[in-house]
Structure formats: C-alpha cells, structure tokens
Amino acid sequence: MIFDIEQIYEEGLDFEVLEPKERFSVDSSDCVLTEDVKVQGKLERSGPDILCKGSLETGLSVTCTRCLCDFSFVVKGQLKVHFIPRVENNKPAHEIELTELDVEQEFYEEGQIDLSSPVRDLILLSLPQVILCRQDCAGLCPECGINLNENKCDCKNEGSYDPRLAVLQKLKDKLK
Fold first, then answer.
1. N or C: lower Cβ tally within 10 Å for the chain?
2. Which of the 8 DSSP states describes residue 28?
3. Strands 112-114 and 105-108
C-alpha cells in the first residue's frame, strides 16, 4: 500500500485496495489473519503533509482468553493518519514534546507514503484486551480442565480455595 505523493492532486486521491494477508505480520499463536485486508479511503494533500482517512475490514482467527477455543473475529475500523516528511531532529529525546496529533502521525520519505504500518496497528488495536468467544463464556474447569461451555464436570470446586484466603471464606460464610 505504497502511494506516490505526486499522484495526490489538489482534489485528493480516492483509493480502494485489497492487500494479501501475508503482507502484514500480525500472526501470533493466538491471533492469525484469515482474510485479505480491504482498505478504502481518501488521501488529501496540504503542502508537504498528507492526511489519510478511510476504513478497513478483515478477519482474524483468535483464541478465547477463558476457554482457549479458536473463533473468527471481524475487524472493522476507521483509519486516520497524518503523514509528514521525515526531518532530521537534533534535539535529544527528552526535549521533544508530544501532542495529541502525534499519536496518529507517521513519517514518509522519498516522496512515498506506506499505509502498511498504520493498517497493521489499527488491526491490532481493534482487538479487545480480553478476547471472549461469547460474553457468557464459562471457561475451563480449574480442576480437570474441561471446557465448561461444552460439558459439565463432576469436580467439587467449592471446597478448594487458596488457604491464604481462609479468613475471607469465614467472612463469606458468616454473611450467608
């Protein structure tokens, strides 16, 4: 997803691309791209700066945090990136002040902008911190490890608790 800045005219440049999933290094043991990434939007030029607004859509195979089952997760997100030319900065890192706009800011070099990194970032940021296959996922039994969404187990989990929490168990029993 590389665009030449010279092709972005005053009225902007509308684009729609379908990038192969292999182009993005999103794959990990619990998150794998399963579909190609569809990106559409508009590039607008303002002097040397380029503003990209658009949307993306793709599919992932992710692992549920509670039951460890794989399931499909659809990513739909809004892309907004501000590209500026890379300029050598002689200030030490501790003297640079970041603004709110810097979070959505990328640099370009050699008259080309590359949307690959912002698109990959948006895909990863679209994932929730706790990924659940469904809201009421029961997870795994802590004793036998059976998936409680599929089967019931005969384990007696009520009697097993951390002995350091015995004081809290006594308090709970008193409140019943």
1. C
2. B
3. unpaired
